[in-house]
Design brief:
Length: 210
């Protein structure tokens, strides 16, 4: 079991940062295991891949229970990509691992396509010892972008569409706050009562753009 002080790092925005953190841990001769949500099938079912062509091997996992079984007792660093697609059991699991002295690096989207908090991600961000929030470039105006624009037939998606989509990359763009659009959004901007990843009968995946 790891003897060092544990920590939890949560990354939002870019897969490259998770890969960078993992490479640093490997350089320091730490025992590292890298996992990803099995829902993420955009590039390679057994790898983390970015739009810039960076690729890193990862084990696809369907649930927090499966993840718990796969982490070995002497693993010092646990890295998780697309953490927002896991069930809420991942919260207690990451917190426990950090308390045991491991380094937990979790990367995921903090906002859904509506620009609303993505499921349990606000809780994970609150539990983290360190939060790294990175931004892309708006596809419309070139300004820093923190929103995900979902497009259906070239038009902005409607507020009432499922939160998670498994779809082609061309359905999404990085957008700044000014250029981000959601059709039929409520005036007060509040999200309705819905579960982000566990209840939709049609499960589709929101593309990471960064």
């Amino acid at each position: 079991m790891p003897k060092s002080a544990g920590t939890m790092i949560v990354i939002t925005g870019k897969s490259e940062e998770l890969i960078r953190q993992v490479r640093r841990a490997l350089y320091a001769r730490k025992k590292v295991q890298v996992f990803k949500s099995a829902l993420d099938t955009r590039w390679d079912s057994a790898a983390i891949a970015t739009h810039n062509g960076v690729r890193f091997e990862a084990v696809p996992v369907s649930s927090s229970a499966d993840l718990e079984r796969l982490v070995e007792p002497d693993t010092e660093v646990v890295a998780i990509e697309e953490v927002q697609f896991f069930d809420e059991g991942i919260l207690a699991l990451c917190d426990r691992w950090a308390n045991e002295g491991r380094t937990v690096i979790a990367a995921g989207l903090d906002q859904d396509f509506r620009g609303q908090p993505f499921g349990f991600m606000p809780i994970l961000l609150a539990l983290a010892d360190e939060v790294i929030k990175l931004r892309a470039i708006c596809a419309r105006c070139g300004q820093p972008a923190s929103k995900t624009q979902r497009l259906v037939d070239g038009r902005p998606a409607s507020w009432d569409e499922p939160t998670i989509l498994i779809g082609a990359a061309e359905r999404y763009e990085a957008r700044c706050r000014r250029c981000h659009r959601v059709l039929h959004a409520p005036r007060n901007g509040h999200r309705r009562n819905r579960r982000a990843a566990s209840t939709p009968q049609t499960v589709e995946q929101q593309e990471r753009l960064f």
